[in-house]
Amino acid sequence: MGRHSCCYKQKLRKGLWSPEEDEKLLNHITNYGHGCWSSVPKQAGLQRCGKSCRLRWINYLRPDLKRGTFSQEEENLIIELHSVLGNRWSQIAAQLPGRTDNEIKNLWNSCLKKKLRQKGIDPVTHKPLSEIENGEEDDEKTRSQEKVTEISESTSKSDAGSYEQKQSSVVVKAYEPEMEVEGSCSNSNNYLMGNYPIQMSFTSNDNLPNSISNSSTHWFDQTGLKPFGMNSEFTSFLPSSFCYKPSLVDIPSEDVSVSSDSFHMKNNMLSPWGLTDCETSIKENQTEEEEAKWNEYLQNPMLMLQNQAFEGLCNQRKPATNLSHDD
DNA sequence: AAATCCCACAACCGCATCCAA
DNA sequence: ATTGGATGCGGTTGTGGGATT
Fold first, then answer.
1. A269 and A188 share a domain?
2. A274: left (phi over 0), alpha (psi -120 to 50) or beta
3. Which residue range or ranges hold the HTH myb-type domain (predicted)?
């Protein structure tokens, strides 16, 4: 027998929505908002449960829905995000404006899984099917680097009419706190440290706001879309999705110093805290830090892709504990 | 033309989590 | 600390329409 659903208990309607029901729900929410979903059906004059109304609104009636078929770029992004997030459909949907988790889940189950298999890729692990069959060990380093390459390629090829055309190059860096920093170098270094800011630099100022100068670096929040300090001039031109090429940003060694629990930025470098000379602590509690980082990854899966690649690159370096500016 | 199959999409179900009482 | 309602999420099923036999 099992549990009775709320609709059964209350003898409410189930199944497909009629245009009249849609109109009632749409009118009600347009006029009054949804508020408490459980009270919506009564207020809107619907013989439905609140859960059903919520779902109908989210998946069909919401005015900001994109509808229509998924573009190739959207499909690529879903595949990339799925490789990081797995079946966390709502989080994947959060990266695709106008798309719902249900829509993406359906697309995945009906189409993308099949496409991946046809390409010889296992849709669960995102590894080559042959590799799984042979039980081969992964080369994390190689895969991570390949992943960034793939993203770079897909973003550079994609959406040629919009953001990518305006930007000749955008580079991004996410900092990794517990990563050891390679010391002593006279030239520029790829430092891997810190965890919150993403740094982007622009190598062309074509179509960029005046505040973003050629070859300058700028700090953004974890989404990569909102600058620290909220400057509307920035947000107005930024892409609505991940339309930039992730790669490492070089920071001149004289601009930063690092100790075991903090890093220090000098020489008028732009920082996310709006200070030119600032210092921040790195949390000592590893468990909390890992948890926080995982939450961060969930909010911005691109960070994980980047960090996977960075870890791969970092593993190729010699470990070092001190940073010297002398060499 | 009818039956069957396949597919995409919509909706339901059950569980987890949150939060206020 | 417990409880129960509200909400969110992911897995699964149902439905309708087009393609195929």
1. yes
2. left
3. 9-61, 62-116
